Amino acid sequence: MGWIRRELLDKFVFELLSKGIYVSRHSYSYRIMYGGRMVLGVHIYPGYKEIVVRLYLDSCGQYCEKVLSEVVSVLKELFPGYSVNIREFKSVIHGG
User: Fold this and answer.
1) Residue 3 has pLDDT above 70, yes or no
2) Which of 5, 8, 62, 79: CA 20 to 30 A from 29?
């Protein structure tokens, strides 16, 4: 199973912050916020050379295309050779 240097993982954070997109990192997972809402989750699987981007449709509204485009662009630049899979999620509200 592979691993990625911490500096490269942190570079992803700094690249997005420089574009006005807030991001926090925990290990190989990222939470991305824009316009005061969590819009994306990014999970890197180095052993599989795969990146999964979770697009939270209900949260991102008008920001979806802009943020997603920026994030995928930075991912492809920093992690060449990794496949980027985008999955859409809608909120589910449970009634009582």
Assistant:
1) yes
2) 62
Domains of the chain, each with CATH number or no CATH: 6-89 (3.30.750)
Q: Averaged over 4-27, what is the pLDDT? A: 95
Amino acid 74: pLDDT: 97
The continuous run of DSSP H or E covering 91 comes out as none
Note every long-range contact of 78-84, with CB atoms under 8 Å and residues 24 or more positions apart, other chains counting. Answer: 78/8, 78/11, 78/12, 78/15, 79/4, 79/8, 79/44, 79/51, 81/49, 82/44, 82/49, 82/50, 82/51, 83/49, 83/50, 83/51, 84/51, 84/53
pLDDT confidence bin for 95, thresholds 50/70/90: very low
